[in-house]
Amino acid sequence: xxxxxxxxxxxxxxxxxxxxxxxxxxxxxxxxxxxxxxxxxxxxxxxxxxxxxxxxxxxxxxxxxxxxxxxxxxxxxxxxxxxxxxxxxxxxxxxxxxxxxxxxxxxxxxxxxxxxxxxxxxxxxxx
Length: 127
Hints:
127 residues, five-stranded antiparallel sheet, 5 strands, 37% helix
């Protein structure tokens, strides 16, 4: 039987009005060093976005999150950050920021399959 591996994850959220500190969850980023795994899953509900603010285009926000996906994958178009080690990429993506796209504090756990765990956390906190 396969052993459980440690992982860390953060919830990704949209904060349309940073000064009001209101947000809604749009994704999850999950990292497991032992499994050499770093991935992000996201979905922005256009109705939620419009309920919070009509100032932002959903395509622009999806573009930013797709750039995060490229960084996770280590894709060359992910820039200098995309070339870093997995753990450094995860730390950079989950660093505290005061922009419209933020992440929660990181949380640890144990899992057999980080891909399944990512999906489970996504369903629980985003959908």
